[in-house]
Design goal:
The structure holds two protein chains of two kinds. Chain A is mainly α. Chain A has eleven helices and two strands. Chain A has a two-stranded antiparallel sheet. The longest helix of chain A is centred in the last third of the chain and has 32 residues. The model of chain A has no long low-confidence stretch (mean pLDDT 88). Chain B is an all-alpha fold. In chain B, 42% of the residues are buried. The mean pLDDT of chain B is 92. The chains are: A mainly alpha, B mainly alpha.
Chain lengths: 266, 263
Protein backbone atom coordinates (compact mmCIF):
# COMPACT_ATOMS: atom_id res chain seq x y z
CA UNK A 1 0.00 0.00 0.00
CA UNK A 2 2.78 2.35 0.93
CA UNK A 3 4.53 1.40 -2.27
CA UNK A 4 1.48 2.25 -4.31
CA UNK A 5 1.42 5.67 -2.69
CA UNK A 6 4.90 6.40 -3.97
CA UNK A 7 3.78 5.66 -7.49
CA UNK A 8 0.58 7.65 -7.16
CA UNK A 9 2.66 10.72 -6.37
CA UNK A 10 4.07 10.44 -9.91
CA UNK A 11 0.53 10.42 -11.28
CA UNK A 12 -0.37 13.46 -9.23
CA UNK A 13 2.70 15.32 -10.42
CA UNK A 14 2.12 14.61 -14.09
CA UNK A 15 -1.54 15.52 -13.67
CA UNK A 16 -0.51 18.90 -12.28
CA UNK A 17 1.89 19.46 -15.17
CA UNK A 18 -0.83 18.52 -17.66
CA UNK A 19 -3.26 20.93 -16.01
CA UNK A 20 -0.98 23.92 -16.49
CA UNK A 21 -1.26 23.57 -20.26
CA UNK A 22 -4.82 24.77 -20.66
CA UNK A 23 -4.50 26.00 -24.23
CA UNK A 24 -3.20 22.56 -25.11
CA UNK A 25 -6.26 21.00 -23.53
CA UNK A 26 -8.49 23.25 -25.60
CA UNK A 27 -6.75 22.42 -28.88
CA UNK A 28 -6.81 18.69 -28.10
CA UNK A 29 -10.54 18.93 -27.59
CA UNK A 30 -11.21 20.88 -30.79
CA UNK A 31 -8.92 18.56 -32.75
CA UNK A 32 -10.89 15.60 -31.41
CA UNK A 33 -14.24 17.05 -32.35
CA UNK A 34 -13.00 17.84 -35.85
CA UNK A 35 -11.72 14.32 -36.39
CA UNK A 36 -14.95 12.76 -35.24
CA UNK A 37 -16.95 15.19 -37.36
CA UNK A 38 -14.93 14.26 -40.47
CA UNK A 39 -15.65 10.57 -39.90
CA UNK A 40 -19.31 11.33 -39.22
CA UNK A 41 -19.76 13.04 -42.58
CA UNK A 42 -17.96 10.32 -44.47
CA UNK A 43 -20.07 7.59 -42.89
CA UNK A 44 -23.27 9.49 -43.48
CA UNK A 45 -22.52 9.61 -47.19
CA UNK A 46 -21.41 5.97 -47.19
CA UNK A 47 -24.74 4.89 -45.71
CA UNK A 48 -26.82 6.85 -48.23
CA UNK A 49 -29.37 4.31 -49.44
CA UNK A 50 -27.89 1.48 -47.35
CA UNK A 51 -29.53 0.10 -44.24
CA UNK A 52 -26.64 -1.85 -42.85
CA UNK A 53 -22.97 -2.30 -43.76
CA UNK A 54 -20.50 -4.72 -42.23
CA UNK A 55 -23.10 -5.56 -39.59
CA UNK A 56 -23.60 -1.94 -38.48
CA UNK A 57 -26.55 0.37 -38.97
CA UNK A 58 -25.79 4.08 -39.37
CA UNK A 59 -26.70 4.90 -35.79
CA UNK A 60 -24.51 2.06 -34.53
CA UNK A 61 -21.70 3.35 -36.72
CA UNK A 62 -22.03 6.87 -35.35
CA UNK A 63 -21.86 5.43 -31.85
CA UNK A 64 -18.84 3.43 -32.95
CA UNK A 65 -16.85 6.44 -34.14
CA UNK A 66 -17.57 8.47 -31.01
CA UNK A 67 -16.68 5.66 -28.59
CA UNK A 68 -13.67 4.73 -30.72
CA UNK A 69 -12.44 8.31 -30.52
CA UNK A 70 -12.88 8.39 -26.75
CA UNK A 71 -10.99 5.10 -26.43
CA UNK A 72 -8.13 6.16 -28.70
CA UNK A 73 -7.93 9.46 -26.90
CA UNK A 74 -6.86 7.61 -23.77
CA UNK A 75 -3.65 6.76 -25.57
CA UNK A 76 -1.50 9.74 -24.92
CA UNK A 77 1.62 9.79 -27.02
CA UNK A 78 3.57 11.48 -24.27
CA UNK A 79 4.75 8.15 -22.92
CA UNK A 80 7.09 7.42 -25.80
CA UNK A 81 8.18 11.02 -26.09
CA UNK A 82 8.99 11.39 -22.43
CA UNK A 83 10.95 8.17 -22.26
CA UNK A 84 12.95 9.03 -25.36
CA UNK A 85 13.65 12.56 -24.10
CA UNK A 86 14.86 11.17 -20.77
CA UNK A 87 17.16 8.82 -22.59
CA UNK A 88 18.49 11.45 -24.97
CA UNK A 89 19.19 14.11 -22.40
CA UNK A 90 20.53 11.60 -19.92
CA UNK A 91 18.06 12.33 -17.12
CA UNK A 92 17.20 8.63 -17.18
CA UNK A 93 20.03 8.07 -14.71
CA UNK A 94 17.99 9.89 -12.05
CA UNK A 95 15.27 7.31 -12.53
CA UNK A 96 17.86 4.58 -12.25
CA UNK A 97 18.84 5.59 -8.74
CA UNK A 98 15.25 5.97 -7.59
CA UNK A 99 13.92 3.03 -5.58
CA UNK A 100 11.09 2.57 -8.07
CA UNK A 101 10.44 0.07 -10.79
CA UNK A 102 11.13 2.02 -14.00
CA UNK A 103 8.28 0.49 -15.96
CA UNK A 104 5.69 0.94 -13.22
CA UNK A 105 6.87 4.47 -12.57
CA UNK A 106 6.41 5.39 -16.23
CA UNK A 107 2.97 3.81 -16.18
CA UNK A 108 1.79 5.85 -13.22
CA UNK A 109 3.36 8.93 -14.72
CA UNK A 110 1.45 8.45 -17.98
CA UNK A 111 -1.80 8.11 -16.02
CA UNK A 112 -1.63 11.84 -15.30
CA UNK A 113 -2.19 12.81 -18.92
CA UNK A 114 -4.60 9.92 -19.39
CA UNK A 115 -6.78 11.37 -16.64
CA UNK A 116 -6.63 14.99 -17.70
CA UNK A 117 -6.53 14.92 -21.49
CA UNK A 118 -7.86 11.44 -22.04
CA UNK A 119 -10.80 11.15 -19.71
CA UNK A 120 -11.84 14.80 -19.65
CA UNK A 121 -11.68 15.34 -23.41
CA UNK A 122 -13.29 11.92 -23.87
CA UNK A 123 -16.21 12.89 -21.65
CA UNK A 124 -16.74 16.17 -23.51
CA UNK A 125 -16.66 14.48 -26.91
CA UNK A 126 -19.02 11.74 -25.73
CA UNK A 127 -21.35 14.39 -24.27
CA UNK A 128 -21.46 16.10 -27.67
CA UNK A 129 -22.17 12.67 -29.15
CA UNK A 130 -25.11 12.06 -26.83
CA UNK A 131 -26.41 15.60 -27.06
CA UNK A 132 -26.21 16.31 -30.78
CA UNK A 133 -25.65 13.02 -32.58
CA UNK A 134 -27.84 10.80 -30.40
CA UNK A 135 -25.34 8.02 -29.93
CA UNK A 136 -26.39 4.94 -27.99
CA UNK A 137 -25.50 4.06 -24.43
CA UNK A 138 -23.94 0.71 -23.50
CA UNK A 139 -26.10 -2.32 -24.27
CA UNK A 140 -26.90 -2.83 -20.59
CA UNK A 141 -25.51 -2.01 -17.16
CA UNK A 142 -23.53 -5.24 -17.13
CA UNK A 143 -22.09 -4.52 -20.57
CA UNK A 144 -21.18 -1.03 -19.39
CA UNK A 145 -19.27 -2.40 -16.42
CA UNK A 146 -17.46 -4.99 -18.52
CA UNK A 147 -16.67 -2.24 -21.03
CA UNK A 148 -14.92 -0.31 -18.24
CA UNK A 149 -12.83 -3.37 -17.37
CA UNK A 150 -12.00 -3.95 -21.01
CA UNK A 151 -11.00 -0.29 -21.32
CA UNK A 152 -8.56 -0.65 -18.44
CA UNK A 153 -6.91 -3.57 -20.22
CA UNK A 154 -6.74 -1.60 -23.43
CA UNK A 155 -4.99 1.31 -21.67
CA UNK A 156 -2.49 -1.19 -20.27
CA UNK A 157 -1.88 -2.73 -23.70
CA UNK A 158 -1.30 0.66 -25.25
CA UNK A 159 1.01 1.70 -22.45
CA UNK A 160 3.06 -1.47 -22.84
CA UNK A 161 3.42 -0.90 -26.56
CA UNK A 162 4.35 2.75 -26.09
CA UNK A 163 6.85 1.83 -23.43
CA UNK A 164 8.56 -0.64 -25.74
CA UNK A 165 8.64 1.92 -28.56
CA UNK A 166 10.04 4.55 -26.19
CA UNK A 167 12.82 2.22 -25.07
CA UNK A 168 13.94 1.88 -28.67
CA UNK A 169 15.58 5.27 -28.08
CA UNK A 170 18.42 3.37 -26.49
CA UNK A 171 19.45 2.04 -29.85
CA UNK A 172 18.10 4.50 -32.39
CA UNK A 173 18.06 8.24 -32.98
CA UNK A 174 14.97 8.03 -35.13
CA UNK A 175 12.38 7.51 -32.45
CA UNK A 176 9.82 9.83 -34.08
CA UNK A 177 9.61 7.59 -37.11
CA UNK A 178 8.85 4.65 -34.84
CA UNK A 179 6.25 6.62 -32.88
CA UNK A 180 4.47 7.62 -36.09
CA UNK A 181 4.67 4.12 -37.54
CA UNK A 182 3.15 2.68 -34.39
CA UNK A 183 0.37 5.25 -34.49
CA UNK A 184 -0.53 4.57 -38.12
CA UNK A 185 -0.47 0.80 -37.74
CA UNK A 186 -2.46 0.77 -34.54
CA UNK A 187 -5.07 3.23 -35.86
CA UNK A 188 -5.58 0.99 -38.86
CA UNK A 189 -5.41 -2.49 -37.34
CA UNK A 190 -7.16 -1.69 -34.06
CA UNK A 191 -10.43 -0.87 -35.79
CA UNK A 192 -10.02 2.68 -34.59
CA UNK A 193 -11.07 4.27 -37.87
CA UNK A 194 -13.16 1.55 -39.47
CA UNK A 195 -14.68 -1.53 -37.79
CA UNK A 196 -12.69 -4.68 -38.42
CA UNK A 197 -15.80 -6.40 -39.83
CA UNK A 198 -15.26 -4.28 -42.96
CA UNK A 199 -11.89 -5.90 -43.60
CA UNK A 200 -11.59 -8.62 -46.23
CA UNK A 201 -11.17 -12.04 -44.56
CA UNK A 202 -7.38 -12.29 -44.92
CA UNK A 203 -6.81 -8.84 -43.41
CA UNK A 204 -9.36 -9.58 -40.70
CA UNK A 205 -7.38 -12.68 -39.79
CA UNK A 206 -4.11 -10.76 -39.60
CA UNK A 207 -5.71 -8.05 -37.46
CA UNK A 208 -6.92 -10.62 -34.96
CA UNK A 209 -3.49 -12.22 -34.63
CA UNK A 210 -1.98 -8.90 -33.52
CA UNK A 211 -2.54 -7.06 -30.24
CA UNK A 212 -3.98 -3.89 -31.79
CA UNK A 213 -7.55 -5.13 -32.11
CA UNK A 214 -7.63 -5.67 -28.34
CA UNK A 215 -7.08 -1.92 -27.91
CA UNK A 216 -10.15 -0.52 -29.67
CA UNK A 217 -12.21 -3.20 -31.35
CA UNK A 218 -12.63 -5.38 -28.24
CA UNK A 219 -13.90 -2.72 -25.81
CA UNK A 220 -16.28 -1.24 -28.39
CA UNK A 221 -17.82 -4.54 -29.35
CA UNK A 222 -18.56 -5.07 -25.66
CA UNK A 223 -20.03 -1.56 -25.38
CA UNK A 224 -22.31 -2.17 -28.36
CA UNK A 225 -23.33 -5.56 -27.01
CA UNK A 226 -22.16 -7.35 -30.15
CA UNK A 227 -20.58 -10.11 -28.12
CA UNK A 228 -22.73 -12.74 -26.45
CA UNK A 229 -22.48 -12.60 -22.66
CA UNK A 230 -20.76 -15.96 -22.37
CA UNK A 231 -18.06 -14.93 -24.83
CA UNK A 232 -17.10 -11.74 -23.05
CA UNK A 233 -14.86 -13.68 -20.68
CA UNK A 234 -12.89 -14.90 -23.70
CA UNK A 235 -12.44 -11.37 -25.00
CA UNK A 236 -11.27 -10.10 -21.62
CA UNK A 237 -8.91 -13.05 -21.17
CA UNK A 238 -7.41 -12.40 -24.57
CA UNK A 239 -6.83 -8.78 -23.62
CA UNK A 240 -5.23 -9.89 -20.38
CA UNK A 241 -3.02 -12.24 -22.36
CA UNK A 242 -1.74 -9.31 -24.44
CA UNK A 243 -1.24 -7.16 -21.34
CA UNK A 244 0.97 -9.84 -19.80
CA UNK A 245 2.92 -10.61 -22.98
CA UNK A 246 3.58 -6.95 -23.80
CA UNK A 247 4.35 -5.98 -20.23
CA UNK A 248 6.91 -8.78 -20.06
CA UNK A 249 8.34 -7.71 -23.41
CA UNK A 250 8.82 -4.22 -22.00
CA UNK A 251 10.34 -5.66 -18.84
CA UNK A 252 12.96 -7.61 -20.79
CA UNK A 253 13.66 -4.69 -23.08
CA UNK A 254 14.41 -2.51 -20.08
CA UNK A 255 16.64 -5.20 -18.56
CA UNK A 256 18.53 -5.31 -21.84
CA UNK A 257 18.56 -1.56 -22.41
CA UNK A 258 19.58 -0.48 -18.93
CA UNK A 259 22.70 -2.59 -19.27
CA UNK A 260 23.58 -0.62 -22.37
CA UNK A 261 23.65 2.72 -20.59
CA UNK A 262 27.07 4.27 -20.53
CA UNK A 263 27.42 7.39 -18.46
CA UNK A 264 29.65 9.96 -20.08
CA UNK A 265 31.84 12.26 -18.05
CA UNK A 266 31.00 12.92 -14.43
CA UNK B 1 15.11 37.44 -55.13
CA UNK B 2 18.05 35.66 -56.74
CA UNK B 3 19.98 36.18 -53.55
CA UNK B 4 17.20 34.53 -51.53
CA UNK B 5 17.07 31.55 -53.86
CA UNK B 6 20.81 31.03 -53.65
CA UNK B 7 20.75 31.45 -49.90
CA UNK B 8 17.79 29.11 -49.57
CA UNK B 9 19.54 26.48 -51.64
CA UNK B 10 22.62 26.65 -49.40
CA UNK B 11 20.55 26.37 -46.23
CA UNK B 12 18.54 23.52 -47.66
CA UNK B 13 21.61 21.52 -48.65
CA UNK B 14 23.02 22.08 -45.19
CA UNK B 15 19.81 20.96 -43.48
CA UNK B 16 19.55 17.89 -45.68
CA UNK B 17 23.18 16.93 -45.13
CA UNK B 18 22.63 17.04 -41.39
CA UNK B 19 19.76 14.59 -41.76
CA UNK B 20 21.44 12.23 -44.18
CA UNK B 21 24.09 11.69 -41.54
CA UNK B 22 21.47 9.70 -39.65
CA UNK B 23 20.75 7.05 -42.23
CA UNK B 24 18.43 4.91 -40.13
CA UNK B 25 16.47 8.00 -39.16
CA UNK B 26 16.04 8.88 -42.82
CA UNK B 27 14.81 5.39 -43.67
CA UNK B 28 12.47 4.97 -40.73
CA UNK B 29 11.07 8.49 -41.09
CA UNK B 30 10.15 7.74 -44.70
CA UNK B 31 8.83 4.28 -43.93
CA UNK B 32 6.54 5.90 -41.37
CA UNK B 33 5.18 8.53 -43.77
CA UNK B 34 4.64 5.89 -46.44
CA UNK B 35 2.81 3.74 -43.87
CA UNK B 36 0.64 6.72 -43.02
CA UNK B 37 -0.35 7.25 -46.65
CA UNK B 38 -0.81 3.56 -47.39
CA UNK B 39 -3.01 2.89 -44.36
CA UNK B 40 -4.96 6.04 -45.24
CA UNK B 41 -5.78 4.90 -48.76
CA UNK B 42 -6.23 1.31 -47.57
CA UNK B 43 -9.14 2.51 -45.43
CA UNK B 44 -10.84 3.89 -48.53
CA UNK B 45 -10.14 0.64 -50.36
CA UNK B 46 -11.63 -1.40 -47.50
CA UNK B 47 -14.71 0.80 -47.58
CA UNK B 48 -15.10 0.29 -51.31
CA UNK B 49 -15.29 -3.47 -50.78
CA UNK B 50 -18.75 -2.76 -49.36
CA UNK B 51 -19.96 0.16 -51.43
CA UNK B 52 -19.89 0.95 -55.16
CA UNK B 53 -19.38 4.69 -54.96
CA UNK B 54 -19.06 7.51 -52.46
CA UNK B 55 -21.58 10.21 -53.33
CA UNK B 56 -21.04 9.41 -57.00
CA UNK B 57 -17.24 9.23 -56.83
CA UNK B 58 -15.51 6.01 -57.80
CA UNK B 59 -12.50 4.50 -56.04
CA UNK B 60 -9.92 5.59 -58.67
CA UNK B 61 -11.35 9.12 -58.62
CA UNK B 62 -10.92 9.33 -54.87
CA UNK B 63 -7.44 7.83 -55.21
CA UNK B 64 -6.55 10.64 -57.60
CA UNK B 65 -7.69 13.27 -55.08
CA UNK B 66 -5.83 11.46 -52.32
CA UNK B 67 -2.65 11.19 -54.36
CA UNK B 68 -2.67 14.81 -55.50
CA UNK B 69 -3.27 15.89 -51.88
CA UNK B 70 -0.02 14.19 -50.86
CA UNK B 71 2.16 16.19 -53.26
CA UNK B 72 2.02 19.79 -51.94
CA UNK B 73 2.03 18.34 -48.43
CA UNK B 74 5.24 16.45 -49.21
CA UNK B 75 6.87 19.45 -50.89
CA UNK B 76 5.98 21.63 -47.93
CA UNK B 77 7.66 19.17 -45.55
CA UNK B 78 10.65 18.74 -47.81
CA UNK B 79 11.33 22.47 -48.28
CA UNK B 80 9.47 24.71 -45.85
CA UNK B 81 8.85 22.69 -42.73
CA UNK B 82 10.67 25.20 -40.52
CA UNK B 83 7.54 26.85 -39.12
CA UNK B 84 7.18 23.79 -36.90
CA UNK B 85 10.29 24.87 -35.02
CA UNK B 86 9.10 28.47 -34.49
CA UNK B 87 7.72 27.58 -31.08
CA UNK B 88 11.02 26.12 -29.96
CA UNK B 89 12.87 29.20 -31.22
CA UNK B 90 10.61 31.50 -29.22
CA UNK B 91 10.63 29.36 -26.08
CA UNK B 92 14.38 29.02 -26.01
CA UNK B 93 14.95 32.70 -26.80
CA UNK B 94 16.69 31.74 -30.04
CA UNK B 95 14.29 33.75 -32.17
CA UNK B 96 16.44 36.86 -31.63
CA UNK B 97 19.10 35.21 -33.72
CA UNK B 98 16.79 35.09 -36.73
CA UNK B 99 15.78 38.72 -36.27
CA UNK B 100 19.34 40.02 -36.55
CA UNK B 101 20.02 38.14 -39.77
CA UNK B 102 20.03 40.35 -42.87
CA UNK B 103 16.76 39.42 -44.56
CA UNK B 104 13.18 38.38 -43.94
CA UNK B 105 12.75 36.48 -40.67
CA UNK B 106 9.87 34.51 -42.21
CA UNK B 107 12.23 33.34 -44.93
CA UNK B 108 14.77 32.14 -42.40
CA UNK B 109 12.25 30.27 -40.30
CA UNK B 110 10.73 28.55 -43.36
CA UNK B 111 14.13 27.38 -44.51
CA UNK B 112 15.11 26.24 -41.07
CA UNK B 113 14.29 22.56 -40.97
CA UNK B 114 13.65 20.68 -44.20
CA UNK B 115 12.24 17.23 -43.50
CA UNK B 116 13.43 14.45 -45.74
CA UNK B 117 10.45 12.31 -44.87
CA UNK B 118 8.47 14.59 -47.20
CA UNK B 119 9.97 12.38 -49.91
CA UNK B 120 7.85 9.49 -48.62
CA UNK B 121 4.69 11.54 -49.13
CA UNK B 122 5.73 12.65 -52.61
CA UNK B 123 6.63 9.10 -53.66
CA UNK B 124 3.46 7.50 -52.30
CA UNK B 125 1.33 10.28 -53.75
CA UNK B 126 2.90 9.76 -57.17
CA UNK B 127 2.32 6.01 -57.08
CA UNK B 128 -1.32 6.46 -56.03
CA UNK B 129 -1.86 9.02 -58.81
CA UNK B 130 -0.36 6.65 -61.38
CA UNK B 131 -2.49 3.72 -60.19
CA UNK B 132 -5.59 5.89 -60.38
CA UNK B 133 -4.72 7.36 -63.79
CA UNK B 134 -4.41 3.92 -65.31
CA UNK B 135 -8.03 3.18 -64.50
CA UNK B 136 -9.24 6.67 -65.31
CA UNK B 137 -7.39 6.94 -68.64
CA UNK B 138 -5.61 10.13 -67.67
CA UNK B 139 -2.58 10.72 -69.89
CA UNK B 140 0.31 12.54 -68.30
CA UNK B 141 1.55 14.38 -71.36
CA UNK B 142 3.74 17.47 -71.17
CA UNK B 143 0.77 19.81 -70.92
CA UNK B 144 -0.93 17.94 -68.06
CA UNK B 145 2.35 17.55 -66.20
CA UNK B 146 3.02 21.26 -66.46
CA UNK B 147 -0.44 22.12 -65.16
CA UNK B 148 -0.06 19.65 -62.29
CA UNK B 149 3.34 21.14 -61.51
CA UNK B 150 1.86 24.62 -61.24
CA UNK B 151 -1.00 23.37 -59.09
CA UNK B 152 1.38 21.62 -56.71
CA UNK B 153 3.53 24.75 -56.48
CA UNK B 154 0.51 26.92 -55.63
CA UNK B 155 -0.69 24.23 -53.24
CA UNK B 156 2.65 24.29 -51.48
CA UNK B 157 2.29 28.06 -51.09
CA UNK B 158 -1.15 27.50 -49.53
CA UNK B 159 0.42 25.05 -47.06
CA UNK B 160 3.10 27.62 -46.25
CA UNK B 161 0.45 30.28 -45.65
CA UNK B 162 -1.90 28.24 -43.46
CA UNK B 163 0.91 26.75 -41.41
CA UNK B 164 2.58 30.13 -40.96
CA UNK B 165 -0.65 31.61 -39.64
CA UNK B 166 -1.23 28.77 -37.18
CA UNK B 167 2.44 28.79 -36.13
CA UNK B 168 2.19 32.52 -35.38
CA UNK B 169 -0.07 31.69 -32.43
CA UNK B 170 3.20 30.90 -30.64
CA UNK B 171 3.85 34.65 -30.46
CA UNK B 172 0.79 34.89 -28.20
CA UNK B 173 0.62 31.45 -26.57
CA UNK B 174 4.10 30.08 -26.16
CA UNK B 175 2.90 27.27 -23.91
CA UNK B 176 0.63 25.87 -26.61
CA UNK B 177 3.63 24.30 -28.31
CA UNK B 178 2.84 23.21 -31.85
CA UNK B 179 -0.75 22.35 -30.99
CA UNK B 180 -2.33 25.03 -33.16
CA UNK B 181 -0.23 23.89 -36.11
CA UNK B 182 -1.39 20.36 -35.49
CA UNK B 183 -4.97 21.53 -35.18
CA UNK B 184 -4.76 23.40 -38.50
CA UNK B 185 -3.32 20.33 -40.19
CA UNK B 186 -6.33 18.27 -39.11
CA UNK B 187 -8.46 20.28 -41.53
CA UNK B 188 -6.26 18.85 -44.22
CA UNK B 189 -7.64 15.39 -43.36
CA UNK B 190 -11.02 16.43 -44.75
CA UNK B 191 -9.64 17.42 -48.12
CA UNK B 192 -8.18 14.08 -49.17
CA UNK B 193 -11.80 13.14 -49.97
CA UNK B 194 -14.27 14.78 -52.38
CA UNK B 195 -15.40 18.09 -50.97
CA UNK B 196 -19.06 17.58 -51.84
CA UNK B 197 -19.56 14.84 -49.23
CA UNK B 198 -19.53 17.50 -46.51
CA UNK B 199 -22.30 19.81 -45.33
CA UNK B 200 -22.10 23.30 -46.75
CA UNK B 201 -20.68 25.12 -43.67
CA UNK B 202 -17.73 22.74 -43.76
CA UNK B 203 -17.33 23.14 -47.52
CA UNK B 204 -17.24 26.92 -47.15
CA UNK B 205 -14.70 26.62 -44.33
CA UNK B 206 -12.38 24.39 -46.35
CA UNK B 207 -12.67 26.60 -49.42
CA UNK B 208 -12.54 30.16 -48.11
CA UNK B 209 -11.23 30.06 -44.52
CA UNK B 210 -8.76 27.18 -44.32
CA UNK B 211 -8.44 26.65 -48.05
CA UNK B 212 -6.95 23.15 -48.16
CA UNK B 213 -9.55 22.23 -50.80
CA UNK B 214 -7.45 24.24 -53.28
CA UNK B 215 -4.48 21.93 -52.69
CA UNK B 216 -6.21 18.64 -53.48
CA UNK B 217 -9.85 18.52 -54.49
CA UNK B 218 -10.07 21.43 -56.94
CA UNK B 219 -6.84 20.50 -58.77
CA UNK B 220 -8.14 16.93 -59.15
CA UNK B 221 -11.42 18.08 -60.71
CA UNK B 222 -9.42 19.53 -63.59
CA UNK B 223 -7.96 16.15 -64.49
CA UNK B 224 -11.32 14.45 -63.95
CA UNK B 225 -12.92 16.82 -66.49
CA UNK B 226 -15.44 18.11 -64.01
CA UNK B 227 -16.26 21.41 -65.64
CA UNK B 228 -18.59 22.46 -62.84
CA UNK B 229 -15.55 23.19 -60.66
CA UNK B 230 -13.52 24.94 -63.35
CA UNK B 231 -13.85 28.41 -61.82
CA UNK B 232 -12.24 27.10 -58.60
CA UNK B 233 -9.32 25.73 -60.59
CA UNK B 234 -8.68 29.23 -61.94
CA UNK B 235 -8.87 30.58 -58.40
CA UNK B 236 -5.99 28.39 -57.14
CA UNK B 237 -3.23 30.99 -57.72
CA UNK B 238 -5.45 33.81 -56.48
CA UNK B 239 -6.17 32.04 -53.19
CA UNK B 240 -2.52 31.07 -52.79
CA UNK B 241 -1.26 34.63 -53.25
CA UNK B 242 -4.05 36.11 -51.13
CA UNK B 243 -3.39 33.77 -48.21
CA UNK B 244 0.34 34.23 -48.45
CA UNK B 245 -0.33 37.96 -48.14
CA UNK B 246 -2.42 37.35 -45.03
CA UNK B 247 0.25 35.06 -43.61
CA UNK B 248 2.98 37.68 -44.11
CA UNK B 249 0.76 40.26 -42.44
CA UNK B 250 0.06 38.03 -39.42
CA UNK B 251 3.75 37.22 -39.24
CA UNK B 252 4.60 40.93 -39.10
CA UNK B 253 2.13 41.55 -36.28
CA UNK B 254 3.53 38.54 -34.41
CA UNK B 255 7.12 39.64 -34.76
CA UNK B 256 6.24 43.13 -33.58
CA UNK B 257 4.62 41.64 -30.54
CA UNK B 258 7.56 39.39 -29.80
CA UNK B 259 9.45 40.27 -26.65
CA UNK B 260 12.40 38.00 -26.16
CA UNK B 261 12.61 35.77 -23.09
CA UNK B 262 14.25 37.31 -20.09
CA UNK B 263 17.79 36.57 -18.94
Amino acid sequence: MKRLKKYLILTEQSLQVAMTYRVRFFTTMVTGLIQVLALYYIWKVVYAGQKSLGGYTLSEMVTYIFISYAVRNLYTFNTERKISENIRDGSVIIDLIRPLNYQLARFFESLGSVIFEGILVGIIVIAVGFGIFHIKGPASFMYGTLFAISLTFSVLINFSLSYAVGLLSFSTTSIFGFINAKRFISNFLSGGLIPLTFFPPWLHKIAFMLPFHAMVSSPISIYLGQIEAYQIANVLLEQLFWVIILWLAGYFMWAWASRKITIHGG
Amino acid sequence: MARYIRLYWMMWIQGIQAQIEYKSSFIIGNVATILGQVTGIALVWVLFQKIGHLNGWSLPEIMLIYGIAALPYGFFELFFNGVWSLNRYIRMGDFDRLLVRPGSSLFFILADQPMLHGLGNIATGTVIILLASRQLDIRWDMCNLLILGFMVAWGTLIYISINTITACTSFWFVASGTNFLYLGQRFRDFTVYPLDIYASPLRILLTWVIPFAFTSFFPSTYFLDRDDYRVFVYLIPVIAVLFFGIASFVWRIGVNRYESTGS
